[in-house]
Amino acid sequence: MQFVGEDLIYVGVDDKQIDLFEGMYSVPVGVTYNSYVIKDKKTAVMDTVDAAFEKEWLAKVEKALGGAQPDYLIVQHMEPDHSACVQAFVKKYPQVAVVGNKSTFVMLEEYFGKGIADNRVVVTDGEELSLGKHELKFVFAPMVHWPEVMFTYDKTLSLLFSADAFGRFGASDDNGNWTDEARRYYIGIVGKYGAQVKAVISKLAAYPLNIVAPLHGPVLSGEALNSAVQSYIKWSGYEPETEGTLVAYTSVYGHTKKAAELLAQLLKDGGEEVETVDLARDDWAECVAQAFRYSKLVIATTTYNADIFPAAREFIDRLVERNYQNRTVGLIENGTWAPVCAKQMRAKFEKCKNLTFAQTTVKIRSALNSESEAQIKALADELL
C-alpha cells in the first residue's frame, strides 16, 4: 500500500491496456485512475476507477479497509473512468452513503438507472463533512471539465482532492516530465474552459495547500505543486509559456516542408526558440499543446480541393475549439494553380481573441523560388 498522507491510503490502478484516452488521445505509457481511502472514526473512499479494473480496485479497497466497513463513497466526477464502479461498490457495501451534489446523482441515474445510491448525502458548495479528525470541505468546480465536478479539501492535511484538475497522462511508473504530459492533458481536455479553471484557482487561493491529489497522475507537493499551480495560472489565462515559434506544416510532395524548414532555420539563426511539427504525422494533441505553449505560430500548408489541407484544417479547428488566443500567427500557403488556403485559414481564426497576424503571407506556387524565398525571409524578419 502506498500512503500519501496521514490515514490516507492510495488504492488507484494503472491502465496500460488503453490505446486511446477518451477515444482520441494517444497514451503510449498508459494512465492512472486514482482513488484513495481516508481512515478515521468514519471512513471515506474517494472516487472509483474504470470498469475494466473493478475487481482489482475492490480488492485494494478491501485490503485498505482492513475488515472495516466504509461510511462514505465520495464521487467528485462522473466520467466513467472514475465512476464506473459505483454500482459494484454499493452492492458490496450496501450501508455506504454516496456523497455527491445534485448533478452527480442525476448523472448516476443516467448511467446506472433509478435506485442507484438511495443512501445518499447531497452536498452544496462549501459544505463540510466530518470524519472525525479529518474535516472535509466540498469546493464546486463546474466545467472543470464537466458540470458536476467538485473538489474535496481535507482541512486536516491541507490536501486537495482535485478531480481531473492537475492531472496528467502516464502510468504510476512513468517518471517523465510532469509539465509536458500535463500540458497535453490540460490543453486537450480542459483547455476550452480556461475561465472556469481560473475561477476555481481564485477560489482555492483562500485554502492552504500542501498536497494535491488528482484523479490522474502523481500526487503533487512542494516545488512540484508550486510549479503545477503556476502552469495552471498560465494555461487558464491563455498565456504563452515560451517566447518562440511553432512551425506547423503539412506537405504532399515535400515542397511545403522545405518552406517550413527554411523558415525555422532563419528563425533559429536569429536566436529564436523554434519547434517544427508535421501535422499529418505527429500526435495531434501534442501539436495543439505546443501551439498553446509558444507565443507565435506559423502554419504552412497546401490548398486541397479548393480548401485547407485536411490535417491543417483539423488542427485549426482544434485550436479554435480550445479558445486559442493571445498569440501571433503567420501563414504560408502553397498551390499549383489556385493557392487560396491562407484566406480560409484566417477566416477560421475569426472566432479567436487577440490574435495578431503577420503582415507577410507567403504564397508558394508549387515549389520554392527566389520570390517565395524572399517572402519567407520577410516573414522571419517580422517574427523576429
Written account of the structure:
- This protein is an alpha/beta fold and 384 residues long.
- The chain has helices at residues 54-65, 80-83, 86-92, 102-112, 178-190, 194-204, 222-236, 255-269, 284-293, 310-321, 341-348, 370-383; strands at residues 2-5, 8-10, 13-15, 20-21, 25-26, 31-33, 36-38, 44-46, 72-74, 97-100, 120-122, 128-130, 135-140, 150-154, 159-161, 211-213, 220-221, 242-249, 274-278, 294-304, 307-308, 327-334, 355-364.
- Strands 1-2-7-8-9-10-11 form a 7-stranded mixed beta sheet. Strands 12-13-14-15-16-17 form a 6-stranded mixed beta sheet. Strands 18, 19, 20, 21, 22 and 23 form a 6-stranded mixed beta sheet that branches.
- A hairpin with a 5-residue loop joins strand 7 and strand 8 (44-46).
- The mean pLDDT is 95.
**Which runs of at least 5 residues are low in confidence (pLDDT < 50)?**
none
- Helix fraction by DSSP (H/I, runs of at least 4): 25-40%
- Summed up, the helix count is 12
Distance between the termini: 53 Å
Percent strand = 25-35%
CATH superfamily of the largest domain: Ribonuclease Z/Hydroxyacylglutathione hydrolase-like
Backbone CA Rg:
24 Å
The total beta strand count reads 23
Name of the top-level CATH class of the largest domain: Alpha Beta
Question: What is the averaged pLDDT score?
Answer: 95
Q: Please give the CATH architecture of the largest domain.
A: 4-Layer Sandwich
Overall body shape: elongated
Number of domains: 2
CATH topology of the largest domain: Metallo-beta-lactamase, Chain A
Which strand order spans the largest sheet, edge to edge or round the barrel?
Answer: 1-2-7-8-9-10-11
Largest sheet: 7 strands, mixed
